[in-house]
Amino acid sequence: MECTVRWAGSSGMTFIAETGSGHIVTMDGAPEGGGRNLAPRPMEVVLAGTGGCTAYDVVLILRKSQQDVRGCDVTLRSERAEKDPKVFTKIHFHFTVTGRNLKPNLVERAIKLSHEKYCSASIMLEKTAELTHSFEIIDDAVTASATSANA
């Protein structure tokens, strides 16, 4: 895996990353740091990538467990050290998993497997941050039938 990051020019602190798969990610700094607030901060991209990594795992594990998963959102709330290097010190992952007749024990297992075995991003961040998790399940069958009844 490789990635090339280029400074977009001397007028600010915008950087453009091109991933090995040919995708572009733009990052920028805060105005007080010389940025123009045109894109996410690099550490926000790290947090977003971690969310994507673990959500991917959870969906894949639930599908392999024959669960009818139809949606998976994860909200990450983090704290960082006050002094440089301002590493993440705490990250809480809250999963909202939508589907039909999802088994809570299998959702919990999928989250646990992701964070203990498969999600390399969260496993790396665990070296500096306390990671915590919570989840809720939204039964799509209940939502769908309630919507139909109200129509």
Automatic annotation (TrEMBL):
Pfam families: OsmC (PF02566). PANTHER family: PROTEIN YHFA (PTHR34352:SF1). This is OsmC family protein.
